[in-house]
């Protein structure tokens, strides 16, 4: 009944949000001066109420152009391969120059792939970029079947096959484990679409290293606790009715609880900016939270298997990970160059968890391995923002260029 209770509460609040939007519009033509201090404060209060909402639809990537060389080139988003639980998207650029093809593997951890909008925008400067656009499990009918960790690895391999030989792979956060597994399986099979480079950014290859609050929570409860406390059925109003899921709104609450004071301070600042008419400053905060409050649900099997196999048993690090019953051996990777990236202040995936991949890829020669530690950035700073663009991205670009 967890999902139904959440939906019931949201349905109750919806009229209040709608009323706040109407009152905000009314305030613009009210008898008081809308530009006055009272008018701005009233409008700000109404906007804060209207924004009290979690959305479940993927926002638009809103990438329409990219800086290529010394000009801005148009960008169009194309669906290359559409599967029930995810779509391979390509950001096609208007250029005749052949550029390295990069598959960005987005996390499946409660947010949409659009969270990596900044990552994609930067990569487009020098690359032909593809991304895994994961579906919201509540919108996938039961007839589509299950989607667990092995299926996730299958999707990565299908997408690489579709892109073709000679591509590169870049995984952010949680899917670093599955990306490494996919490359290991493809390497052992000598698959022609095995990527030339593999960049793993802030992912839990070995979550036993310097465990964070996220890691500690995953191992502090039994698997039965997660199943009984966090898994619920999709309400009948949605296409995925009856599917058992880990709701995105629970993941959002978990993330926010880790830094609740920071989020409270951000919303106080948002109100102050709105009340003072500082639209540019308010717009930056609204843009972030519009994305942050857009959530997707995970299938029960993917969530539970991730808790058990990635965090509780650390199967990849211990050598016990399997793919459809077949052992996954990163030691089979011999020709795919490895780059790992970690943030010095990452409180979600701590130092040492991602770089553990170097020991697992034991057959790689030293010149095919590189680790980059970015000081003074947290988890999101690894793949977005000023340090990503100016300091981390050049390392990624050079690794890919060296293997072209």
UniProtKB/TrEMBL annotation:
Record InterPro entries: AB_hydrolase_fold, PHA/PHB_synthase, PHB_depo_C, PHB_depoly_PhaZ
Domain PHB de-polymerase C-terminal residue range list: 202-401
Pfam short name (any one): PHB_depo_C
UniProt name for this protein: Polyhydroxyalkanoate depolymerase
Organism the protein comes from: Rhizobium esperanzae
Lineage of source species: Bacteria, Pseudomonadati, Pseudomonadota, Alphaproteobacteria, Hyphomicrobiales
């Amino acid at each position: 009944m967890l999902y139904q209770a959440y939906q019931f509460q949201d349905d109750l609040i919806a009229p209040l949000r709608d009323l706040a939007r109407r009152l905000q519009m009314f305030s613009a033509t009210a008898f008081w001066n809308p530009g006055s201090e009272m008018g701005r404060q009233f409008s700000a209060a109404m906007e804060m109420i209207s924004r009290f909402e979690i959305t479940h639809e993927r926002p638009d990537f809103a990438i329409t152009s990219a800086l290529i060389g010394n000009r801005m080139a148009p960008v169009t988003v194309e669906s290359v391969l559409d599967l029930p639980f995810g779509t391979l998207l390509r950001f096609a650029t208007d250029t005749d120059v052949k550029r390295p093809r990069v598959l960005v593997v987005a996390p499946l951890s409660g947010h949409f792939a659009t969270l990596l909008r900044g990552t994609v925008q930067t990569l487009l400067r020098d690359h032909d970029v593809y991304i895994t656009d994961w579906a919201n499990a509540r919108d996938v009918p039961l007839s589509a079947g299950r989607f667990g960790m092995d299926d996730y690895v299958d999707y990565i391999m299908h997408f690489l096959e579709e892109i073709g030989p000679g591509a590169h792979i870049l995984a952010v956060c949680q899917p670093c484990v599955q990306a490494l597994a996919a490359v290991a399986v493809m390497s052992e099979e000598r698959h022609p679409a095995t990527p030339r480079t593999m960049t793993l950014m802030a992912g839990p290859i070995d979550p036993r290293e310097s465990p964070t609050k996220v890691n500690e929570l995953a191992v502090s409860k039994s698997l039965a606790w997660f199943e009984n406390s966090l898994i619920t059925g999709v309400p009948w109003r949605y296409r995925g009715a009856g599917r058992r899921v880990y709701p995105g709104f629970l993941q959002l609450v978990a993330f926010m609880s880790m830094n609740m004071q920071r989020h409270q301070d951000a919303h106080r600042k948002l109100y102050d900016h709105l009340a003072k008419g500082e639209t540019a400053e308010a717009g930056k905060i609204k843009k972030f939270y519009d994305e942050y409050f857009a959530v997707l649900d995970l299938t029960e099997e993917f969530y539970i298997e991730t808790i058990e196999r990635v965090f509780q048993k650390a199967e990849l690090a211990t050598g016990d990970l399997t793919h459809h019953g077949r052992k996954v051996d990163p030691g089979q990777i011999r020709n795919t160059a490895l780059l790992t990236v970690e943030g010095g202040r990452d409180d979600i995936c701590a130092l040492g968890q991602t770089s553990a991949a170097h020991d697992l890829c034991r057959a790689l020669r030293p010149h095919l391995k590189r680790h980059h530690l970015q000081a003074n950035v947290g988890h999101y700073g690894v793949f977005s923002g000023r340090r990503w663009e100016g300091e981390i991205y050049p390392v990624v670009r050079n690794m890919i260029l060296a293997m072209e």
